[in-house]
Amino acid sequence: MVDTAGALPDELARLRGAHVLVTGAGISGRALVAPLRDLGAAVTLTDGNADSLRAAGLDLDVPTVTPEGAVAGIDGFSQVVTSPGWRPDSPVLSAAAGAGIPIWGDVEFAWRLDRSGVHGPARDWLVVTGTNGKTTTTSMLESILRAAGIAAVACGNIGLPVTDALRSESPRYTALAVELSSFQLFWAPSVHPAAGAVLNIAEDHLDWHGGMEGYVEAKAQALTGDVGVLGLDDPVAAGLRDRPGIARTVGFRIGVPGVGELGVENGSLVDRAFATDERLADVGDVTPPGPAGLMDALAAAALARSIGVAADAVHEGLRTYQVGPHRAARVAEVGGVTYVDDSKATNPHAARTSLLAHPRVVWIAGGLLKGASVDELVAEVADRLVAAVLFGRDAGQIADALARHAPHVPVHRVEPGHDEHVKSTDAPDAVMARAVRVAADAAHPGDAVLLAPAAASLDMFSDYGHRGRSFAAAVHALADDGAP
Asked: Residue 154, SS3?
């Protein structure tokens, strides 16, 4: 337990001795147990996955309860802290709301904890959200901040829970590059960062938010701080520019920036928002190359500049940044065909960037579309598709879109129950191996075989990383087999 000497704000002080229910036994939920215990709370954990719940209970030595048990005993709790993926209409959270029990998200709790001073002076929060590019932008931002000599760390949806970043003592971070999903922002109404960026907004998670309006509203929570950074080349994000409640708006664009914007001119990233006209870096300093990488770099630069980071630190941070795995990563060239892993393209908007980067593509796609439509994407990229290899729960929706907008493109379904070579008992890795083999058969020298699923991975794989590793393994096996 931390020694707060009675200095905690009321909303945290009341947790001492209180029974707190944490929903979710994954990374986010597990990370809540220790800081809640630090405050003197009696923590109970719940999760619909019995195996995860059992493992977390044993690992953390924390009481557990099934969701059904939590609903039945909801009156025994005085606070619920939820992992971000739990919808407000889930039975446990509905029961808590109906009983008048406060519900915080994991990021909401972290924000309140940081503002309380339990772990020292409050940090500068620089928030990154958007449908695509969040992780790259957040990682770039971390690199820039560290180049400026700031003790900073990337956290949030990027992998390190914010509470873990707050509890770190060696080093003690003074600035947080916080990637936040729409789920996390929905459950974090109190968060008002030093600066927040909305990179872009396209259809995604519409089933969770009940439609596009709810999704946009959640993303806009990132703009409630001192500076709001907006991607002006994205019409939905740009439309938030005049939103009430934003103290100051800064835009970024891939073209020449106007006053109050960052952009690209004469081969350089230029700042006309935090300076009159300052060159930050060369286009060639940015990895990954191309429009998407440049936009991410501009957003990261804007957030860093908002707290006074110098231009030379922006340049150094971008120059030394290395792109993470499963983001348009070249796996190998086999028989003159290039194999590219963009498993992180978990929605149509993200897949679009990868598909447009290649003139001739054998497209491997499928998974959970989460309510998003692929029609617009297919219509735009139809002229560069050599073939499509589809798997996963929503493969049929992608196949239907291809039939409507690209009827000339051969479509191969590769999944249990749809292909004679893949039996219903096959593991996801076997399905991926078959998909890569089918794609290889359809490709010609000079083509790209591109894993850009346009969909989430959880119907078959443990996460997008598993899906990308499975693809890479299948490609390497293809090369080992001496495939032409």
From this structure: strand
